[in-house]
Each structure stands twice: as structure tokens, then as C-alpha cells.
Amino acid sequence: MQVVKLDSLSCQSLAYRSLLWIVIVTAFLCIGFLGPKTIKQYRYSACYPSGEDDSKCHLQMKTGAVWNKTTPLLTPLHQFLILEFEVESEAKDKGWSLEDFGVIVSLNGSITHSHTATPILSSQNHTRLLNCPAHSKFCDKITLIYLSWIQYSTYSISVHFNPQQPIQEIGDVAFTMAAANPQYTLFTIIIKWLYILITIEILFLFRRRLQKVHEDEWIPAQKWIMWLLFGLIFFNDPLCLVNAIGIQPSWIVSLISLIFQI
After folding, report:
1. Dmax of the chain from CA atoms?
2. Least confident of 63-67, 97-101, 154-158
3. In whole angstroms, what is the distance from residue 85 CA to residue 143 CA?
């Protein structure tokens, strides 16, 4: 059995390569810590930005109020959209909860502001458990909307609180709209595809070194390196571009992408 010696390094060459590896790893760590934030959040208040009297707004929240909002301009690089809300508890000294807190949600999407909105959720009635711990300003967060793919440029959201009876403990309601930071998404795609191209180049050079030996004579370590390099290409998820270019991923694509990263 012939064993191919893949490389022969002097002490000086080994030191240079080790130093280069340390510099590359340090650079990527600095980019990771100093790079763009993962999530972009928008926080809104149901009462205070409206310009109405606080007492009037709080009364509306107790008896049932409507909150309307249009999202900022979104692109497929935002990846997802999450809308959560948390109720301000006016009974901070004691904990309380409400099992059937009624919320009616409507969601429309449009490609541009001039296009006709397309209904996505039409006045769907939801009941949520409203849990307010003692000595806490806000109750637990409740998720109203989760979109795993950005199909439209803007979304119009309407939330109607529909309590069965007036709730005296409710004050303001804070809404949090979250999406992926498009700069982070672009940064992730660039890094992943950079790793993919580097892995393909290493795989090509490694296979070229083994051309002198028939595949039946490869030692187990050489075979494992070939399979690991090939698997590393898929581990970096080459399908990450599907969301970025605005193509709706099917469940098959999502499953394949998940299997690649196991």
C-alpha cells in the first residue's frame, strides 16, 4: 500500500502557517463581536405616541381598543417578522392572570404603498393567557404574529383587544416588532459562501494530491478527510441564498437545509 505524503513543512513554515491561522481566527472573532446586530427591533406604545389623553387611552385599553400600524419597508433579507405585546400592569404589588384574554388580529401585505393590500389574516380571534407576575411593571410577553418568510414590502397590522369585561389592572400596552437585521443576513451569507469556496478549493487541492494513488489504496484517514471536506460544504448551508433572493422556501428546501447543518 502506497501512502502519499501530503506535505512537508519546515519549522519556519509551520510557524508561519500557525500564525496565519491565529490571525484569521482572531479577525473573524473581532468581526463577529463588532459586526451588525442579529435582530432589528421596533418598539411602539399603544397610548403615548397617539397624542391622546393618557386617562382616555388607558380607559380604552381596559374596555377594548384598536391598535393599527404599518411596518417599515421590509426585504427578504429581514427573513422573518415577529409581533409581540406586553401589557403594563397597574397592580404591581400583586400577581394576577387572565386565561381568556381576547385579541383579534388582522394582517395585510402589499408590495408597495401604491399596491392594493392582500389579506393574510382576516380578523382572526385569539385567546391568550395573560400572566402578570407580582412586582413587575409588565406582564409576560405574548406573541401575536410570526412570519417565517417576508413576501411583501410592507405589512398593515390591526390589533383589537377584546376583553370579556373591563380589566382595571391594565395600563399601557407595548408592542415589539422584530425582524432579522438585513446587514447581519448579508454578512452571514458572505461568510458562509466564503467558507464554502475555501472548502471547495481545499477539497480540489487535496484530491489533486491523491491522484498518484488509486482509491482502493487510500488509508482510512485520507478517505475520512475527503468525506469531511465534502460534508463541510453542505454544513455551511449553500441554500442560505434562497431566502435572500426572495424565493419562498418549500418545506423540502427547509428540511434539506436543516439536515445539512446537523
Report:
1. 87
2. 63-67
3. 7
Indicate the pLDDT class of residue 58, thresholds 50, 70 and 90: low
Tell whether the torsion through CA atoms of 47, 50, 53 and 59 is positive or negative. negative
d(CA 253, CA 242): 9
Count of all residues that appear for the chain in the document: 262
Q: Using alpha carbons, select from 158, 161, 174 the residue that is nearest to residue 103.
A: 161
How many other β-carbons are positioned within 10 Å of the β-carbon of residue 181? 20
Q: Concatenated DSSP letters for 47-102?
A: SGGGTS-HHHHHHHHHH--EEEEEPPP--GGG--EEEEEEEEES-TTS-EEEEEEE
**Alpha carbon distance 62, 168 (integer Å):** 6
pTM for the model stands at 0.73
Q: What is the mean pLDDT of residues 78-83?
A: 89
When the pLDDT of each residue in the chain is averaged and rounded to a whole number, the result is 77
- Strands, sheet with 170-180, edge to edge from the N-terminal-most edge strand: 39-45, 170-180, 81-89, 142-147
Mean local confidence (pLDDT), 136-149: 86
Q: Which of 131, 40, 51, 134 is nearest to 87 (CA)?
A: 131
Element (H, E) at 119: strand 118-132
**Assigned C-alpha cell, 153:** 414590502
Identify which of 225, 197, 196, 220 has the alpha carbon closest to the alpha carbon of residue 209: 225
Residue for grid cell 382572526: 124
